[in-house]
Amino acid sequence: MKNNTISKTFLWMCFGLLVTFITGFLVSNNDTMLKNIYGGWGYVGFVIVELILVIVLSARVMKMKPTTAKVCFLIYSFVSGLTFSSIFVYYNLNSIMLIFLVAAVIFALMAVIGYVTKVDLTKLGTYLLFGLIAVVVVSLINIIIGSSLLAIIISVVCIIIFIGITAYDVQKIKELDNMGLPQDNLAIYGALDLYLDFINLFIHLLSIFGRSND
Question: Distance (Å, rounded) from C-alpha 208 to C-alpha 214?
Fold first, then answer.
Protein backbone atom coordinates (compact mmCIF):
# COMPACT_ATOMS: atom_id res chain seq x y z
CA MET A 1 0.00 0.00 0.00
CA LYS A 2 1.26 3.44 -0.82
CA ASN A 3 2.37 5.22 2.32
CA ASN A 4 0.77 8.41 1.06
CA THR A 5 -2.66 6.76 0.86
CA ILE A 6 -2.57 5.24 4.34
CA SER A 7 -1.28 8.54 5.73
CA LYS A 8 -4.18 10.42 4.16
CA THR A 9 -6.65 7.81 5.41
CA PHE A 10 -5.57 8.10 9.03
CA LEU A 11 -5.18 11.87 8.78
CA TRP A 12 -8.78 12.27 7.62
CA MET A 13 -10.01 9.79 10.21
CA CYS A 14 -8.27 11.77 12.98
CA PHE A 15 -9.57 15.03 11.56
CA GLY A 16 -13.12 13.63 11.58
CA LEU A 17 -12.74 12.46 15.18
CA LEU A 18 -11.39 15.87 16.17
CA VAL A 19 -14.41 17.61 14.61
CA THR A 20 -16.79 15.21 16.36
CA PHE A 21 -15.22 15.49 19.80
CA ILE A 22 -14.77 19.27 19.72
CA THR A 23 -18.35 19.75 18.51
CA GLY A 24 -19.68 17.40 21.17
CA PHE A 25 -17.72 19.12 23.93
CA LEU A 26 -18.76 22.63 22.90
CA VAL A 27 -22.42 21.68 22.56
CA SER A 28 -22.39 19.95 25.97
CA ASN A 29 -21.42 23.27 27.53
CA ASN A 30 -24.18 25.23 25.82
CA ASP A 31 -27.58 24.77 27.47
CA THR A 32 -29.46 26.41 24.61
CA MET A 33 -27.99 24.07 22.01
CA LEU A 34 -28.62 21.06 24.24
CA LYS A 35 -32.27 22.01 24.56
CA ASN A 36 -32.57 22.50 20.80
CA ILE A 37 -30.95 19.15 20.05
CA TYR A 38 -32.59 17.00 22.71
CA GLY A 39 -35.90 18.83 22.91
CA GLY A 40 -38.73 17.57 20.73
CA TRP A 41 -37.68 15.78 17.57
CA GLY A 42 -34.30 17.48 17.22
CA TYR A 43 -32.22 14.47 18.25
CA VAL A 44 -34.17 12.09 16.02
CA GLY A 45 -33.73 14.47 13.10
CA PHE A 46 -29.95 14.62 13.54
CA VAL A 47 -29.75 10.82 13.81
CA ILE A 48 -31.67 10.50 10.54
CA VAL A 49 -29.30 13.00 8.89
CA GLU A 50 -26.35 10.95 10.20
CA LEU A 51 -27.76 7.76 8.70
CA ILE A 52 -28.43 9.41 5.35
CA LEU A 53 -24.93 10.89 5.18
CA VAL A 54 -23.16 7.63 6.11
CA ILE A 55 -25.25 5.65 3.59
CA VAL A 56 -24.62 8.15 0.80
CA LEU A 57 -20.90 8.36 1.60
CA SER A 58 -20.48 4.58 1.78
CA ALA A 59 -22.29 4.04 -1.52
CA ARG A 60 -21.09 7.03 -3.55
CA VAL A 61 -17.75 8.20 -2.16
CA MET A 62 -15.66 6.58 -4.92
CA LYS A 63 -17.78 8.33 -7.58
CA MET A 64 -17.75 11.76 -5.95
CA LYS A 65 -15.34 14.55 -6.68
CA PRO A 66 -12.60 14.45 -4.00
CA THR A 67 -13.63 17.82 -2.59
CA THR A 68 -17.28 16.77 -2.36
CA ALA A 69 -16.31 13.56 -0.56
CA LYS A 70 -14.18 15.48 1.94
CA VAL A 71 -16.92 18.03 2.65
CA CYS A 72 -19.53 15.29 3.13
CA PHE A 73 -17.23 13.47 5.54
CA LEU A 74 -16.64 16.62 7.59
CA ILE A 75 -20.38 17.40 7.65
CA TYR A 76 -21.03 13.85 8.87
CA SER A 77 -18.38 14.27 11.57
CA PHE A 78 -19.96 17.55 12.66
CA VAL A 79 -23.51 16.15 12.81
CA SER A 80 -22.19 13.15 14.76
CA GLY A 81 -20.64 15.61 17.19
CA LEU A 82 -24.05 17.17 17.84
CA THR A 83 -25.48 13.83 18.97
CA PHE A 84 -22.17 12.92 20.64
CA SER A 85 -22.63 15.80 23.07
CA SER A 86 -24.67 13.52 25.34
CA ILE A 87 -21.44 11.62 26.10
CA PHE A 88 -19.88 14.75 27.60
CA VAL A 89 -23.04 15.50 29.58
CA TYR A 90 -23.35 12.04 31.13
CA TYR A 91 -19.73 10.94 31.61
CA ASN A 92 -16.91 12.49 33.62
CA LEU A 93 -14.46 14.30 31.33
CA ASN A 94 -11.38 12.63 32.85
CA SER A 95 -13.04 9.27 32.32
CA ILE A 96 -13.77 10.12 28.69
CA MET A 97 -10.14 11.11 28.09
CA LEU A 98 -8.80 7.94 29.72
CA ILE A 99 -11.13 5.65 27.75
CA PHE A 100 -10.27 7.57 24.58
CA LEU A 101 -6.59 6.86 25.18
CA VAL A 102 -7.27 3.17 25.83
CA ALA A 103 -9.40 2.93 22.69
CA ALA A 104 -6.69 4.69 20.67
CA VAL A 105 -4.02 2.22 21.83
CA ILE A 106 -6.20 -0.81 21.03
CA PHE A 107 -7.21 0.68 17.69
CA ALA A 108 -3.62 1.48 16.71
CA LEU A 109 -2.47 -2.04 17.61
CA MET A 110 -5.18 -3.69 15.51
CA ALA A 111 -4.56 -1.27 12.64
CA VAL A 112 -0.88 -2.28 12.57
CA ILE A 113 -1.84 -5.95 12.67
CA GLY A 114 -4.27 -5.46 9.79
CA TYR A 115 -1.59 -3.65 7.78
CA VAL A 116 1.30 -6.07 8.24
CA THR A 117 -0.43 -9.47 8.49
CA LYS A 118 -0.17 -11.86 5.57
CA VAL A 119 -3.30 -13.73 6.68
CA ASP A 120 -6.39 -13.11 4.54
CA LEU A 121 -8.96 -11.56 6.87
CA THR A 122 -11.85 -11.73 4.38
CA LYS A 123 -13.56 -14.68 6.06
CA LEU A 124 -13.04 -13.11 9.47
CA GLY A 125 -14.67 -9.92 8.22
CA THR A 126 -17.69 -11.89 7.01
CA TYR A 127 -18.11 -13.63 10.36
CA LEU A 128 -17.74 -10.33 12.21
CA LEU A 129 -20.38 -8.71 9.99
CA PHE A 130 -22.88 -11.46 10.79
CA GLY A 131 -21.95 -11.13 14.45
CA LEU A 132 -22.59 -7.39 14.28
CA ILE A 133 -26.01 -7.95 12.71
CA ALA A 134 -26.87 -10.39 15.50
CA VAL A 135 -25.76 -7.86 18.12
CA VAL A 136 -27.94 -5.15 16.55
CA VAL A 137 -30.96 -7.48 16.70
CA VAL A 138 -30.28 -8.36 20.33
CA SER A 139 -29.77 -4.66 21.15
CA LEU A 140 -33.18 -3.82 19.70
CA ILE A 141 -34.74 -6.59 21.78
CA ASN A 142 -32.96 -5.27 24.87
CA ILE A 143 -34.55 -1.87 24.35
CA ILE A 144 -37.82 -3.61 25.26
CA ILE A 145 -36.36 -5.88 27.95
CA GLY A 146 -34.13 -3.25 29.55
CA SER A 147 -31.61 -5.70 30.99
CA SER A 148 -28.45 -3.98 32.31
CA LEU A 149 -26.56 -7.29 32.33
CA LEU A 150 -27.45 -7.96 28.70
CA ALA A 151 -26.36 -4.41 27.83
CA ILE A 152 -22.91 -5.11 29.32
CA ILE A 153 -22.66 -8.41 27.43
CA ILE A 154 -23.60 -6.64 24.20
CA SER A 155 -20.91 -4.01 24.79
CA VAL A 156 -18.26 -6.68 25.45
CA VAL A 157 -19.21 -8.53 22.26
CA CYS A 158 -19.18 -5.25 20.30
CA ILE A 159 -15.69 -4.44 21.58
CA ILE A 160 -14.43 -7.82 20.36
CA ILE A 161 -16.21 -7.39 17.01
CA PHE A 162 -14.85 -3.89 16.33
CA ILE A 163 -11.34 -4.90 17.37
CA GLY A 164 -11.47 -7.52 14.62
CA ILE A 165 -13.21 -5.24 12.11
CA THR A 166 -10.48 -2.62 12.55
CA ALA A 167 -7.80 -5.06 11.38
CA TYR A 168 -10.06 -6.25 8.56
CA ASP A 169 -10.83 -2.72 7.34
CA VAL A 170 -7.16 -1.70 7.27
CA GLN A 171 -6.31 -4.78 5.20
CA LYS A 172 -9.28 -4.05 2.90
CA ILE A 173 -8.10 -0.47 2.32
CA LYS A 174 -4.62 -1.79 1.58
CA GLU A 175 -5.98 -4.18 -1.05
CA LEU A 176 -8.21 -1.52 -2.62
CA ASP A 177 -5.24 0.80 -2.97
CA ASN A 178 -3.37 -1.91 -4.87
CA MET A 179 -6.22 -1.85 -7.40
CA GLY A 180 -5.27 1.70 -8.40
CA LEU A 181 -8.41 3.45 -7.17
CA PRO A 182 -8.43 7.28 -6.86
CA GLN A 183 -6.22 8.04 -3.86
CA ASP A 184 -8.16 10.95 -2.37
CA ASN A 185 -11.52 9.18 -2.65
CA LEU A 186 -10.09 5.97 -1.20
CA ALA A 187 -8.65 7.94 1.71
CA ILE A 188 -12.12 9.30 2.58
CA TYR A 189 -13.70 5.86 2.11
CA GLY A 190 -11.13 4.36 4.45
CA ALA A 191 -11.35 7.25 6.90
CA LEU A 192 -15.12 6.76 7.21
CA ASP A 193 -14.76 3.02 7.88
CA LEU A 194 -12.02 3.51 10.47
CA TYR A 195 -13.83 6.46 12.05
CA LEU A 196 -16.88 4.26 12.61
CA ASP A 197 -14.70 1.45 13.97
CA PHE A 198 -13.04 3.75 16.48
CA ILE A 199 -16.25 5.49 17.58
CA ASN A 200 -17.98 2.17 18.22
CA LEU A 201 -14.96 0.78 20.08
CA PHE A 202 -14.77 3.93 22.20
CA ILE A 203 -18.49 4.09 23.00
CA HIS A 204 -18.70 0.47 24.13
CA LEU A 205 -15.56 0.77 26.25
CA LEU A 206 -17.02 3.91 27.78
CA SER A 207 -20.36 2.20 28.52
CA ILE A 208 -18.54 -0.44 30.58
CA PHE A 209 -15.68 1.45 32.20
CA GLY A 210 -16.77 5.09 32.05
CA ARG A 211 -17.63 7.06 35.20
CA SER A 212 -20.78 9.14 35.13
CA ASN A 213 -21.13 12.68 36.48
CA ASP A 214 -23.73 11.56 39.02
Answer: 16
Structure pTM?
0.92
- Domain assignment of residue 18, yes or no: yes
Instruction: Per-residue pLDDT tens, the chain, 214 aa: give them.
Output: 446 888 899 999 999 999 999 999 999 999 888 888 887 777 888 889 889 999 989 889 988 999 999 999 999 999 999 999 999 999 999 999 999 999 999 999 999 999 999 898 988 888 999 999 999 899 989 889 888 899 999 999 999 999 999 999 999 998 888 887 788 899 999 999 999 999 999 999 999 998 887 6
Phi, psi of 91 (to 5 degrees): -100, 150
**Which structural domain, as residue segments, surrounds residue 104?**
3-209
- Name the domain count of the chain: 1
Q: Which amino acid is at 172?
A: K
